[in-house]
Each structure stands twice: as structure tokens, then as C-alpha cells.
Amino acid sequence: MRPTLRIAIAIEKTLKSPFWFGFWVTFFLWAVATTNLFKITDFGRNTSLDALTKFYPFESLYPNNSGSFVFVNIDDNSLKTIGQWPWPRQISAKLIDKISQSGAAAIGVDILFAEKDRFSPDNLSQSLGISKKEIMTIGALNGDKILGEIVKETPAVLAFALSNQKINNKETLANHFVLMGEPPYYLLNAQSLIQPIPELQGAKGMGFVNTNKSEGMIRETPLVVQFQDNFFPSLALDMLRVAQGADNHVMKQSDLGESVLIKTGQLTVRANDEGSFIFHHGHMNRFTQIPASEILSNQTFDFKNKIVIIGASAAGLGDIHSSNLEDDIPGPLFHLQLMDQVLSDRYITYHVFYDRLIFLLCAGLSILFSFLMLRVAYRYVLIGIPALAAILIFLSVERFLHAGFIFNTPIALVLLFSGSMTTYFNQIAQKIMLGRAVEKDIADAKDVQTTLFPAPDSISNISGGVIPYKSLSGDFIDYFKVGNKICFIEGDVSGKGIPSALLMARSVALFRLFARHNLAADMIAKRINDELYSHGTADKFVTSVMGWYDMEKQEITFVNCGHNPVLLIDETTHQLFDQTSPPLGVVGKEDFSPSVVTLAYAPKNVLYIVTDGISEAMIKVAKDKEQEIGMEGLLRITQKQTTFTAMQRVEQTLGLIRNQKLRATDDATILVIMHESIAPHETSEKNAV
Q1: CB 346 within 8 A of CB 66
Q2: Rounded to a whole number, what is the distance in angstroms from the first to the last CA of the chain?
Q3: CA 76/CA 80 separation, integer angstroms
Q4: Secondary structure of residue 379 in the 3-state scheme
Q5: Which of 465, 455, 526 is nearest to 490 (CA)?
């Protein structure tokens, strides 16, 4: 077999089989998740962290440490009170000094002092065109020098920034890192540093303030960065060092290499293999916030042994960010969140190996359920999958709360449901398409079935019609001329649907075959009975009236094989002829011997042959009550058709059902035979009910 043919057969098999369709969908999603194509795994992990954070914010698990931190806020009111930003450096020095005198353990300054003070004597001299000596004579202070002296004497930790652009400045920051073993391979490498001015580099500590944003949110931040051959801490990490009075950070990789361990004083801080720290955010209003203007106004505050960070919430200063829990958060509060987690020993971790293991397990279970979906009741699969999903969610929550571990739950759930649900919906789709195909086939069969019936006006003095109760009819009629005689038949196949329609078509074909041989009515019935009994089924039979109208003798002969009574009417009287044998196909030829009814046909005679769809049609007799019309009701209808042709009698009777004046409960069929001397003529229809 050619390879292209094999591929075509495989594709056809996949498209036709619900299982293989579900299998390949699951396999594709597993491959995408395992390779992190389109960053889908990162998205799933972030979604899991976001959901867990919203349900279990940090302070719900660790409510006690937030009192150790204070945010000194350069807010809009402080700018209004002190003046526009940036303030003269001596004001910042005063702010740091007052906080230090109140006993703060560490003071982080989330402000970049990368340029000279604009209010320094040098800058004022250049901008005002006055000599530096004159400027200093009138009281101008060297704010950079003052601030530099303060940060040397206080536990201040100043901020610097990382830059992706190459800046031609020499790195002069103090290095407080001691490396044990090989350096971590995946650490962030900075292209350059935006450092504080030289006057400020005598501070007790310095840390970078850059962070990571994903989808506009801060979910994690680097703790350590490599620049050239040195390592530098984040602002929060160095604040913890200064608060403990430690000289250095000691860094090494974990034994398995999946994380970076940083010993800072008495604390061991854990980061992932890239040196990043994942936030378990809480609501930031748990931290004490004090406007900077209140501290500068000589109000007294107790900061003893507290870790304080100075930063801005003023909208115009642009240090506002979002977390997966809140929007519009001042940047300094993220540093407090990090330190709060470290002091609470709360670390959020994940591992790619465990992600892939769970993906493989969920994909395997999904394929298994796809297989079972086609072999057991749906309810077992539809119970089993949600149960496994509930277990996975429970484990995800439990591990997050007790170990800080993040399962990639959303992607795992997608994989778990993908195969079985794809198989399920594919199977439903195939059933729908099959149903539509069957409906089309039935509609086509209905069109074909109507061609089996003679046209209502094909013979002037005989006419008939069928209204199927559903799409296909089990009732049938046929009549045609053989020489100077007209043969006719009306039948009703037991049951409904396609099997009955097929037996109906066979019965019509047999009747035509035997009638064209000009056999007597009872002989035709016997031949049809033999065929149906020999090759039929026990639960299928045909009731029928068949016979001949001899137009030369003006004589009608017929047999009634288990059918409704035949109604003969004239101007004043009527007569019913009941069945003369069992239905066709019920008994063998030894027990089947129908009696022939012979009628001399007078000019005013009309013969009505109907199925029970008409005789058992329902008519409303009260507001909420119906009853069958019976043969008496049919007689009343015929009594109002005295001037009608055969075709008009058929159309008017069936019209009562089409117009819902009668409610049919089965196929409705009528055959009307009039004396051939009655010339057809048009007349207006009357309401026969």
C-alpha cells in the first residue's frame, strides 16, 4: 500500500472515530503544554497562582509580621506641604535622620539619586549665573554632602537600577555577596547599572529596584543579579541584611540546582534557579503608612526595630503598579511584601518536572476516559472525570497552603477533560450529522413513496390519498386499469417507520405483479399472503382490501383481509362489509382462505375504504374532551359529499385532518370508488363536520 494511501486512511479513521479524534486532540495539547509552546504553561501557572491568591491572600495565612514594617509615603499631600518633587537633598536627609533616631532597624529608600541635587550650589550657580561662593553665602547648602553623611551614619539602604543599555560609567558599588561553589547559571545579567552619585555610595546598603511584569502585573521579582563578575541584591534583600547587622550575603545553588539559596544574617532566603522570588500577595493596606510630611513636621513616631521604606504613592511620580490581588499599588509596598514573606518563611515554588509529570498523567487519564466513553455508560465517565478534577484541585490548594507549591492546575484540567469531552462532543456531532443524513434519506424516501401511489385524478371515478402520521407511511393505495376492469387495493402495515414503509412498498409491488396477471381478488390475496408469510417476520402483517371493478358487468368483487369495514352508500342507505380473513402474513396458506364479496354496482353507489387513521381520528366534543369519529362519523361526512367527484370526496375528507378539524393518531388513508357512469364535475367544497 502506498504511503499516501495509508495516510489518507489514517486521517479518515481519525475523523470518523470519536476515540481517535479525542486521542489526537489530547496528544496535541499535551505536546503544546510540555514544550510551553505559545507560553501556555506560563499562562496556566500564572492563572493558578492568581486564583489561589484571590482565595487565600497572604495575610489570611500569616497575619502577624506586617506590624514590623512601615511605609513612609511621599503622597500628594506631602508634595503639597513640602513642595514639588524632587525635594532638596537635605530634606531627604532630614527625613532619613528622624526615622533613624526613632529606632528603625533598616531604612530603604525607593528613590534613585542618580544625578546631582538640582538645589546644590553648583547647579544653582549655573542656572542663576551667580558664583558658587555667593550662593553659599546666602545659605545654599550642599544637600548631596549632607545626605551622604546621613546615610553613612544610619541604617539606610539606597536604590539603584539595572539598565539594558550600555552606559559608560564604572561600577563603584560595594559588593556584599560571598559566593560558595559555582555561580548560578541562569541568573539575570545586567548590561549596566544606574548608580547613586558618588557622595551617597558610603551608605550601609544598596539594592536594585527593578522587577518583572507579566500581563501588566508583578507576580515575581529578582532577588539577585549578576553584573560583570559581581553579584548585587535587590533593595528588599539588602534591607534585611542591614536590619540584622550582617556584613554579607552568602549565595550558593541548591544540591539539585533547582533553586538559589542566599544566607542573609540569620535568614536563608530561597529563590528559583533564575534568582527570582515569587510573590504570594496579600492586601497592602495591612502595612502601616505614614505621610512623609507628618514626620518632617516634627511629629513623634516610634519606629523601634521596625523596617521602614521611603517611597512615593503620588500619582505624578509614576511608581504605581498592579498585583494579581489589587490594582494601583505604590512600588515600595512590593518590597515590604517580599520581606514579610521572607520573615514568615513563605516561599512559592514550582518545578517544570512536576508540571510535565502531571501533564502526562492527566493526558493518559483523558485518553483512558475517551476509550471508556465509547464502552460504558456516559454517567460513569461524567462522574469519574469531575471526581479526578476535584482531587487535583484539592491537592493544588493543599500543596499551595502548606508547602507554597504551585501545580499548573488549569492546563492539567484542560488535558484531563480534553480527550473525553472531545470524544463526547464528537460522538454527539456524528449522531447529529447521522440524524440529519437519516432525515434527508427519510425525506427522499417520502418523495419516492409518493410515486408508488397513483395520481388522485388518474381515473375519473376512483381516487385515493394518504396522509402519513410521521415522515413515512405504512398505509398504501393503488389502482389501475387491466383491460376493461380496474384493480384496486388499500392496505395498512402494522407498526410505523422505515420497516413498515419497506413492507408497504413490497406489498404494492406484489399486488401489481399478481393483478396484471388478471387473477381473482382472493387469488391475489393468497399469493401476497404466501410471500409475506414465507419471507416476513412474526411481528409484521398487512391489513388490506383488494378487488376488481368490472366496468362491463358493473360489478365489484373484493376481499377484506383484517381491514376496517368497507362502507357502501347510495342515496338513502348504507352497508358495511367487515373482514373476511386474517391480515396478510399472519397465517400460512393452509389457514388463509378469504371470502370474496361480490356487489352489483348501481349508478348511485359509492364505495369508501379507509384505514383506522380516519375511523379513529379524534374530534372535539367539549372544551377538554375528544372522541373517535368511528365509522358513524365517516358516514356523516359522506352524507355531505353527495355532489362531489371521487377526487373531491378524498380531498375534502383528508382536508379535515390537514385543517386540524380532526386529529389523526395514525396514517390516514382513503380510497373512493364511484360508479363509472357518474360524470366528474366541479362543485364547491362544503364543511362535512
Answers
A1: no
A2: 71
A3: 6
A4: helix
A5: 465
